[in-house]
Design brief:
By secondary structure, this protein is mainly alpha-helical. It folds into 2 domains: 52 residues; 207 residues, MetI-like (MetI-like fold, Orthogonal Bundle). Helix content is 77%, strand content 1%. It has a two-stranded antiparallel ribbon with strand order 1-2. Helix 6 packs parallel to helix 9, helix 8 crosses helix 9 and helix 10 crosses helix 11. It is globular.
Length: 334
């Protein structure tokens, strides 16, 4: 595509993009303002844009009983998060041992999540946050593991059976959520897996797997067969050539697919609401603040929405380089 050189056309395109950004950002900006208001300010007839912000909504959302040294604990937690972010950024510049650093950071994060309820008295919303992390991580690990193997196999298989599998997978992807939730609800009742992480992860993997296979297959199609043939000449078998040669090359594509899988599992509402009773995730937990006649639910719902959005925004910003590379690589060929 040739770049647009007409200044009027460029100005018009930039104006449209700016308006679209404003249109997309204003709801989240307003929700953030609502989360920093008191109940009276949030329910005022005239919208308030200038007010004294308060963090009581976030404290009431996350903590059952705030500790006396809440400010010190909060600043300490923020400092630890900032240090971990800087370490992860520096680890990407290291020539070796990068994977060990990432595993150490993941272990520290798990330790922090495990230790917070044992230091402060957390509210029920924190349990919903942990449920979301467990379900999201489990769905990504299983879905990407299966998707990589299936996508690579379909990218290298030239028979008619591969085409049939892809078409069938696309058909399953087009099915509505209710086509999955009722059979898996019956399976959960029969097997005793209802209201468990395992049933929820299996269902989300089934819903997401066709998309994962299709997307990863497009990335593997970009890699010449000669690369793995050369690896097998040097002594690798098919699996080791796939693990040591193909996967490192397609890593940006795997990151892109993983991010889309995270968004699907993180934002799922219907499947979680029907298949669980106590293992609710954040979207279902936020829904309990949107109903009823309690005016205080407006500020709590706003604080919950902002709290649920911030981790995803940070994750996307952190992996934006790999996301752009993966999407650009997958768009080279159809």
């Amino acid at each position: 595509m040739q770049p647009i050189k007409n200044p009027v056309a460029r100005l018009f395109i930039h104006l449209i993009l700016i308006l679209f950004v404003i249109y997309s950002a204003v709801p989240f900006f307003w929700t953030t303002l609502q989360s920093l208001k008191t109940v009276r300010q949030a329910n005022a007839r005239t919208p308030l844009f200038i007010f004294n912000p308060t963090f009581d909504n976030y404290i009431n959302l996350w903590l059952e009983e705030p500790p006396d040294n809440l400010l010190a604990w909060g600043l300490g937690l923020i400092m630890v998060i900032v240090i971990l972010v800087f370490i992860s950024i520096a680890a990407s510049q290291l020539p070796s041992h990068r994977q060990k650093v990432y595993w150490a950071i993941a272990a520290v994060v798990v330790l922090i999540l495990w230790g917070i309820p044992r230091v402060v008295n957390t509210a029920e919303f924190y349990d919903y946050f942990l449920n979301t992390i467990i379900v999201t991580v489990g769905t990504v690990v299983v879905s990407i593991s299966i998707g990589c193997l299936a996508g690579y196999a379909l990218a290298r298989y030239a028979g008619i059976l591969g085409v049939i599998i892809l078409v069938v997978a696309l058909g399953f992807r087009a099915l509505p959520r209710l086509a999955f939730v009722l059979p898996y609800y019956w399976i959960g009742q029969v097997t005793g897996l209802h209201d468990t992480y395992l049933l929820l992860i299996i269902t989300l993997v089934a819903v997401n797997q066709p998309f994962t296979v299709w997307m990863l297959r497009s990335f593997f199609m970009e890699i010449p067969r000669e690369m793995e043939d050369a690896a097998m000449v040097d002594g690798c078998n098919r699996l080791t050539a796939f693990l040591r040669v193909i996967l490192p090359i397609t890593w940006p594509g795997i990151i892109s697919t993983s991010l889309f899988t995270i968004l699907l599992a993180y934002n799922e509402f219907l499947l979680v609401r029907i298949l669980t009773q106590s293992k609710w995730t954040l979207p279902v937990a936020i829904a309990q603040f949107t109903g009823g006649e309690d005016p205080g639910h407006i500020t709590l719902a706003s604080a919950a929405s902002v709290s649920a959005t911030i981790p995803i925004v940070i994750l996307i910003l952190f992996f934006q380089q790999q996301l752009v590379k993966g999407l650009a690589a997958g768009a080279v060929k159809g």
